[in-house]
Design brief:
Layout: E1 6-8, E2 14-16, E3 19-20, H1 21-28, E4 32-36, H2 37-55, E5 60-64, H3 71-79, E6 83-86, H4 89-97, E7 105-107, H5 114-123, E8 127-130, H6 133-146, E9 150-157, E10 179-180, H7 185-194, E11 199-205, H8 217-236, E12 242-244, H9 262-280, E13 286-289, H10 293-296, E14 300-311, E15 317-321, H11 330-334, E16 340-342, E17 350-356, E18 365-373, E19 381-385, E20 406-410, E21 413-418, H12 423-427
Parallel strand pairs: 4-20, 5-6, 5-13, 6-7, 7-8, 8-9, 9-10, 9-11, 11-12, 12-13, 15-17
Antiparallel strand pairs: 1-2, 2-3, 4-14, 14-15, 14-19, 16-19, 17-18, 20-21
Helix pairs in contact: 2-9, 5-6, 8-9
The protein binds ligand LLP.
């Protein structure tokens, strides 16, 4: 199987985190997001331990909470000792409501409004990751008005193309995020921040992309960021204390995807970091990263009920389910691949289907050309694997479809972390 939390009983019943998927579907209904809490915790621990082993005590992984954001996620992450990356007031509010410590929140975003900045300052958010000069000026004014000095990181664009898909490539020179090194603007950005009294420049941030598999991407990023830190020291006399390398490690959606040994990769990153700091005569900075997908993706599975099977002779067949682009827009947006499994049987004659959703447009495909038992019929259950990242988080109400619940699986038990929406919930804002 794709990951070791997906198994099948001898009678063909699909299990996730050791629990029967048809039983869970019977109890909670479909469409249904399942999340393997034990896997989330194991992934958090993997990062914590690798950080401790390779980067020393101060190093901290921050969970990029945009990947899966609801209160219980923040509670789990807090218990596992990680910080979080939040990208909006909504994420910060969710974190605080869950009791997440404000000082361990890093606040991102390239378009923070005055109100956003004021809110985050009022809540005592630990660190702003400042994206650009406009934000810097407003933050300085707002912090001055409150008589405080706000810790910040400056988001720098290292000019690296990580060869991932375009929509998630965030490190190249001309992306909308951060301030580029190549044009000389990054140095001016640091200079401007240092001239301000109410911000404390702790260090630099960068993020080169998501679904990164390239061995050398983070090494090249370290090379550029450390060279820039050395220039900052030479030109401005400041030695920066913190380096945040963003998120991005890719995960396996299909059997054919490579598996990344993240602790081993982090070991290589640490070795390069130590080499470059020694070469440039810099102190080893406190090291941070912001993994999102690699913490939650393989902890997720979405379960659907087949509503219709449609065969168009000479063309193709569809299995149409009770969910779709509203709960998983990733194939529509990025052409993302997924592994799809029948949840009740695996053997017998098979056929190729497009797994289609129930939204009223022909582009609503969850995954094209998947293999299912040929006798797949209305009422059967199918499971889409590895949906823990950017599925619930990106769900919409398109076609006024209520969002599915998120059910957590933990130690052989299950519980609701986000309840199923009703039609009334969907209509609640209408006047
Ligand atoms: N840090 C920053 C500043 C980011 O922009 C992101 C992701 C992360 C960390 C976490 O990256 P991860 O470890 O999850 O790759 N919706 C897209 C992914 C968008 C990623 C946006 N930024 C998808 O469904 O594939």
């Amino acid at each position: 199987m794709l990951t070791d939390n997906i198994t099948r009983r001898s009678d063909g019943t699909l299990c996730f985190a050791g629990q029967s998927v048809p039983e869970l579907a019977g109890r909670y209904g479909t469409p249904l997001y399942l999340m393997d809490e034990d896997r989330i915790r194991a992934n958090c621990r993997m990062y914590r331990e690798a950080f401790r082993a390779h980067f020393g005590d101060g190093a901290l992984p921050l969970y990029a909470s945009k990947a899966a954001c609801f209160k219980q996620m923040y509670r789990i992450v807090a218990e596992e000792g990680l910080g979080v990356d939040c990208v909006s007031v909504g994420e910060i509010h969710t974190a605080l409501q869950a009791g997440f410590p404000a000082e361990k929140i890093y606040y991102h975003g390239d378009g923070k409004t005055d109100a956003d900045i004021a809110y985050a300052l009022a809540q005592g958010v630990g660190c702003f990751v400042v994206d650009n000069g406009n934000e810097l000026i407003t933050l300085e004014e707002e912090a001055a008005a409150r008589g405080i000095r706000q810790k910040i990181l400056l988001r720098i664009t290292p000019g690296i193309d990580p060869h991932t898909y375009q929509a998630v490539n965030t490190g190249a020179v001309d992306v909308k995020f951060g301030v580029p090194v190549e044009t000389g603007q990054a140095m001016e950005f640091v200079r401007a921040a240092l001239s301000m009294e109410h911000v404390e420049v702790a260090g630099l941030h960068c993020h080169v992309g998501s679904m990164v598999f390239g061995e050398d991407v983070y090494q090249r990023t370290i090379d550029i960021m450390l060279a820039f830190m050395r220039e900052v020291k030479d030109e401005l006399g400041l030695e920066l204390d913190e380096l945040n390398l963003g998120g991005g490690y890719g995960v396996r959606y299909e059997e054919s995807d490579p598996a990344i040994d993240i602790p081993a990769r982090l070991g290589e990153v640490a070795a390069n970091l130590k080499k470059r700091t020694a070469e440039y005569g810099l102190r080893l900075p406190r090291f941070l990263m912001e993994p999102g997908r690699s913490i939650v993706a393989d902890a997720g599975m979405t379960v659907y009920t087949v509503c219709s099977v449609k065969r168009i002779p000479g063309y193709k067949s569809y299995a149409i389910v009770d969910g779709g682009m509203a709960d998983n827009p990733r194939y529509c947006l990025y052409g993302s691949r997924y592994t799809v499994l029948h949840a009740q049987r695996s053997g017998g004659l098979r056929a190729i289907f497009d797994l289609a959703g129930r939204a009223c447009e022909s582009g609503d495909i969850i995954q094209p050309a998947i293999s299912l038992p040929n006798n797949t019929a209305r009422g059967d259950l199918v499971a889409v694997c590895t949906t823990g990242a950017y599925n619930y988080a990106m769900a919409s109400h398109y076609n006024r479809l209520p969002k599915p619940p998120v059910v957590m699986l933990h130690g052989g038990e299950s519980y609701v972390a986000v309840r199923r929406e009703t039609i009334e919930d969907v209509c609640a804002m209408d006047v």
